[in-house]
Each structure stands twice: as C-alpha cells, then as structure tokens.
Design brief:
alpha/beta; Rossmann fold; nine-stranded mixed beta sheet; eight-stranded mixed beta sheet
Amino acid sequence: MSRTAKRLIRPLNNLRSGAAYPASRKQVREDVLNEEEQLYLIGKARTMPGTANELQSASNRYHQNGAAEKVLGAVYTPPRVAAALTRWAVRSASDKVLDPSSGEGVFMSAARTRLADLGARRPQCVGVDVHAQTAAATGAVCEDFFSWVRSAPKFDVVVGNPPFIRSHLFPEGSRRLAFGEMVRMGLKPSRLMSTWAPFLAVCCSVLVPTGRLAMVIPEELLHVGYAQELREFLVRRFRRVIVCLPSHEIFQEVQQAVVLLLCDNENAAESGILSIEYPALEEGDFDDLTPAEPWAWNPKWTHLFLTAQERRLVNQWWPRLDWRPFRAYGRVEVGVVTGDNDFFVLDEDQAGAFGEKHLMPIVGGAKDLRGITFGANDFRRVLSEKRPAFLLRLDAPVDQLPKPIRAYLELGEQRNVHIRYKCRIRDPWYAVPSAWESDALLLRQSGEMPRLVHLAKKCTATDTVHRVTWDRPSLGKRHSVSFMNTWTLMASELTGRSYGGGVLELMPSEANRLPLPEPSAALDDIFEAVDERVRSRNFYDALALVDEVVMPGWMSRGARQSAENILAKLIKRRKTRYHANH
C-alpha cells in the first residue's frame, strides 16, 4: 500500500479504535463516524492520484452496504409517483423540462412519456447528475448541478428528487456554489442546510415566470428552522404551493419521510398553501385541493399533519384559550456545553478525589428524570446506579489547583481533550462556562411526551436537557405540573421537530413559544398524583388529571376529546413513521 493511501486510512483506523473514549462510548462514536468515513474514503479515492485502486475495496464495501447512496443523497422515487408529478407539471408538448438530479432517470422517463402523449416529436428534457456512470446511462449531463446552473437556460418545468445529503456530508466546493446561487436570489443560506434545500431554492431560479415545479422533498421542509425562509420564499414565488403527504407504503424503501411539493402560478380560484391526498394526486383530481394557510402562532407548516377539520378546530380554540407563552413566565436555555461530557461529568467514585468545592450536581440526561420533579432521593438513585452526576467546575490557574485535579487535567491532555473544539476555544480549556443551577429542566428530546421537571434539588444539566429559570421560582412546581396538559403537548408536537428514533426535539426558541396555563393554586393539589403517574409511565392518566384543572369551562367534553385525539394522532404519527422504516 502506498504512503498516501496509508495516510488516508490510518486516521480512520485510529478514530474507529475509540482509543480516546471509554468503552461504553466506542459504538456511539463509531456510528457517528460511519458516514464521514464513507465520504472521506470514496471522495479521496476519486480525487487523489495513486490511491484509487488501493481504496477501491473500501469504497466497494460502502457501496454494497448502501452507503454510496447515502453519500450521494440518493432516495429513489417509485415510477408511479414520478408519473403522477410529471402529469401535473408537464402541460404542453413544447414544455422544456429539467431534472436537476436525474439519478437513474425515473423522472426523465416519465417526462418523455408525458411529452410524447401530448404530441411532442422531440421531447425537450434535460437531466443533470454528478455521478458519471449514472449520467452516461440516462443521457444526462454529468456535472455538479450548482456549477451547471450558472449558465443554464430557463425551463417551463422542473421535476425530480434532489439528493438528501446532511450538512456535514455536503461537499464544500458544491456547498460554496449552492450558497452563492442562493445569495444571488436574495436568500440567506445556513450551513445547517442539507443539500435538498439549496436544490429546491435554486431550481426555482431556472423556471420561467409561469413555470411549474414538482419534486419529492424531505418532510423537513415543513418544520426545520433553516427552511423557514425557504417556506416563505415559496409562498412569495408561486401562487399555489400544493403539499401532499404520501403514505409509507408508497415510499417503502425510504428511511426519511417525504412530501410531494407542487408549485405553480396558475390563476385558479384557490391560492396559497394547499393540501391534497395522494390518491387524488395520482388520479389527477385537483378539485380535491384544500386550503391550508399556516397559523400565525407557528411559523412551521406542521399544520399540514392535520386534516382540514382538525385545523379548523385548532384555529377556533387558539384565540379563545388565550394562554400566555412560556417566555411570559421564565426562559428556556440550553444546558451546559462541556466539550467532553465523558471527561467533565463524573460519577461518585471519580468525584470523591476532588472535593465539593470543585463539583456541582448535574443531570446527565433524560434517563435521570423519571417524573415531573427531581429531588434528593432521585439524586441518590442516580449515584447508586453509578451514573455520572457531578460537573467538574474549575476556573483557577492550573498551578493553583490541587494535585489530584492537576493529574486529572494532565490525563485529559494525554487524551487530547484540550484540543476538542469547545475546549480549545476557551481559556483555560478546562473552565466550563455557564455552569449555573436552574429552577427546572425541560426534556430536549422525548420518546413519548416532553416533560417539564421541577428541581427540588438544585443542579445544572448537560446540553442533552434544557435548563429553565422562572421569573417567580415559588410558582415553579405549578408550572411543571401544568405543562402536562393536552394543549401544551399538542403545541409541542406542532412546534418541535421529529428527530431520529421517532423522538420529538424541542429547541429553546421553540419551547419559549409554547402556551402555558395560568399557575393556579389548584395545581398544588394534583402535583404528587401527576408525578406518580408519570413515573409509572401512565402519561395519559396524568394528562387527564391536569386537563381537569387547566382546561377552560367553555371547552366542551367533545372539544376536549377532539384535542386529545389530535395529540394522540401526532404522537402516533411520529413514532409509527420511525418504526415503519426500521
């Protein structure tokens, strides 16, 4: 093996060995590195002279495991879906059609068939694909779309399925080109963006003013923060933005939920955001379009997860409920970012060598939080389970620290903790910032339901949990129990995002907008009962207790049942979607 190839592979072997990490974290670290290794190996094999043959076997392994598709962002579209989208978008034999990421050519084939049916003798279809072998097989242009588009003509129709490549795998050269095009369009790209977002945006720029777009897009379009500007842009750019949520049975091979996005400037009676069921789309029944204007209180398009009737009910309830947002009572902030939790968060045995002066109790994750309160008994349970529970707090110069701590810091430097990103940008590297005790904790990620946990024992938390500070801490217990109501949890499902593993993720900016009921004295009477039910994982029983106290009298039993059904539907959708793909 050549020296160059060894230089490429050795760092990967070192990383895969997990030498600098405790054994319990090796598998997690390995899983995280998998995709980076794929891109690293495949990309280097293609670009560095003299290494292609030596790395080919490694590249082939990743291809065989489906990793090449992941690196290239390939999510293949069933022909029936491509045909349905193309039938809607292509309306004239003279239409010029573009597929910006043509892949195996399913949309190109559907477009040619549609144009031929409309009487075109020479269908005008252009495909672009970065993969040379695939492009050659389908007659597409082999080029990076973001490079090709700079001199591209205008098209009447854009159809396709852009690559779904996560931001950390987005090739930097392509990213620069993509972001440059977005900036020229007046948009503000974010490095958090997966590749589909600039693909969608830039495709709009190659359309004639009356052009039409029909694409398969990740469901992330509806709810991720970095797509908010893109959502607003689509509504400005097109008179109609039609969204279809196909069932899993249609995209059985796709592990990421998708939506079908259809945009045009048709001068029709209905405009704005519209929804359509997949059977109607496939049958061409566009009389079935349903208006779906977004809610003023939620910048996301998650309202599309609900039926038209359910959306109307929420529209009726929201102004009448008139609950204040979370930020009216306090604030949600991220937990402590240590830079290396394995090093800075210690179990009882490790902490015993350092003394209380340099330690702060810390919650390491949702696993430590069983109910809606965390007290001394809960903390003792965490210690008995040998779980990390103390944050190492240091800010003095190293020569002023006790000898055991100096020795521990030297061990950290031997393990390269000091050069990890969050550590190397602070001085000294071992001084963890923003380590303050909070009044409550809010789960950042939730499998069943999010929870707001009152801290009877003061502590801080890692950034796997959010910290909460109340304007009036004396009302903290009431807020924690009141959070477990149907309306707040429904708003959580609609405001947050569905994360990998079927869990719900709430970021601080989203949590601070959630509606909370008034912290009435009646909540004190049910606090212990709700905590007991949550610890027993009888979540819906806990909800019923809280709803009886906080739901307004004008809301009938039927209306409350409808709200409960909507919440249950959103939770089931999130969890079922994950299990259907695994």
